[in-house]
Amino acid sequence: MSRSLALFAIGLVFGGGTGFVIAAGNGVTFDGHDHSDPSQHGGSAEAAAHDHSTAVNLPAGEDAPGLKIDVIKDPMAGWNLHVMPQNFRFSPENASSTDIPGEGHAHIYVNGTKLGRLYSNWYHLTNLPKGEVEIEVSLNANSHSPLMVDNVPVAVSTTIQVD
Fold this sequence. Notes:
- The protein is an alpha+beta fold.
- It has two domains: 1-34; 65-163, Sandwich (Immunoglobulin-like).
- Helix content is 18%, strand content 39%.
- The protein has helices at residues 2-25, 45-49, and strands at residues 56-58, 66-73, 79-86, 89-90, 103-110, 113-118, 122-125, 131-141, 147-149, 152-153, 155-162.
């Protein structure tokens, strides 16, 4: 009986983990809606407070946010995305709240399709299509609005060759 219970527990852990990986790979977030679906942002109080079209524009200067990325082939499988923001702090605890200059999260895009949000410096990319693949990362404010410096989006992209 205890062996069956142990196998059941192991199955729950791996099954749940697989579900989270599949959801994240398909752009599903845990805040209750799909950010890539415009119909998820219409006609509600949340939509008014969660407007992706209004950019947060900061002045240029030494304290302005910046961004660099590096995509490194993982020795086992996939690719490792290293996101290196400057003058910017990842703040998952403040997501969907008031904007604070220099903090927020990043969005990851693969060939123009949003993969999801990023709240730290590293992300493992899996199941990329074969051929040339463009990886783009943009910085976003707490309100999910695009972050800009002197009207230029704080975003960077690179192209990799996937065999």
